[in-house]
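Researcher: I'm preparing a figure for a lab meeting and need a structural model of a single chain. I don't have an experimental structure, so a prediction will have to do for now. The sequence is pasted below. Please return the structure as tokens so I can convert it later.
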Amino acid sequence: MKIAVQGGPADARIIRELLSPWDVSFTCFDDAELVIIYKEKPPEKKKVIVIPSESEGFTKWIEDMKLAVVRKPGKPVSVAAGAQTVLNITPQILYNHSKLVRSAPWSKLPTATEIEKNLVLLTLDIIGEYNKILSTTLNTQPSRIYRLLTSSPVPYGMAPRPLRNLLMKANRGQQNLTYCDKLPVDALRLILVKAIKILLGSEPTRKSWNGKKYACVLTHDVDSREALQRTNRLRKLEEKYDVPSVWYIPSKRYKLNVETIRELANYGEVGAHGTRHDGKLDRLSEQKLVDRMREAKQTLEKITDSPVRGFRTPLLQHNFKILQAVNKAGYAYDSSIPTWEPRHPASMQPHGIGTIYPLDMDGIIEIPVSLPQDHQMIHVLGVNARDAVRKWSEIKEVIKELGGLCTLLVHPDYALAELSNIFVYEELLNAIVSDSQAWVGVPAEIGWSASPVGG
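Model: Understood. Here is the structure written out token by token.
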């Protein structure tokens, strides 16, 4: 399927990003089967999707076409994602428009019926909404509690864990984990894909994950020396079920056991988790951020004698400055932004990027943590280990239907790694490998192009 995009370079990049999970070729205007227009006048004699905007070009075109377009406050928009799943998004502004008027202002204009057959005018500005979601996610202001815990010279980790868990408790009775309203970016993707189907008669083909329908990536944050000591407990089970995982390790928070880290790297992947695992990254200058990240990378590469490609921030901190620093420090990807979680430690509010696919974030690939991590499940929502696995399985089915990426974060020093729950963790691994439609691997094996690996 060949598509051309008419708009600014940044706008065209977003369209390519939104369509990255599908097998779409972007080409020049003359060779395109369909043209997607933003902020410009649509061409004649082409099948066209028009994205509404406040631009001069769009407004002039509306006037020339004698279209009645009304901007209204946003209300939820639903889009079918599959046989069982419907995604919702509440845009900032909806555009209600009438049908094209037959009394066209110039003689060469085709009839209204011909125009309607070859043109779809979307009801919302999907590029504006995409920018809004990213800006909101990456510019969230830290809460007072977070500032208090991380501003002290004493590391926040010195606070008793029961106190930290108490502060993180969410309103447990009102948490909806269906994900139908947690994926606004993916709702935008589907709105665009449905418009393509209207004009071309079929949707583009989804890309596969090495021939599989969806992907599963198991990750671990090794936050403490105790956690490093317990990694073998999880690693041996993962080797038994042939499920490689990635271990994100802070380079200076505790004494590193070289032999243990090499064993982790030999089977799976080792990534960096900062240096001291504190919550102060957002307060550092960009150069200090880069220096810290580069130091962590070099330390772990020296131990493992192999490249360290991935980075995850402590406490899943994220903003534009941090992402730029990850890129400048030489990492191939970052995995610090949740798709959604009920109570992010920085904002103390529900928070997430709203997609289950990798994103190209201005040169660095972001692998979102697409399932709520174990800490969120057990300490924020208050479910036990078995119920956490059950809820993960329910969300996994939605991600599977959408052909996305299941990224799960399990800490070696939390409940699932305890001896009393290790059989539950084994059930989780068995469920992952028993699904023949799942590609199982580590982030370093994912294609670095803001799209799933080719199949």
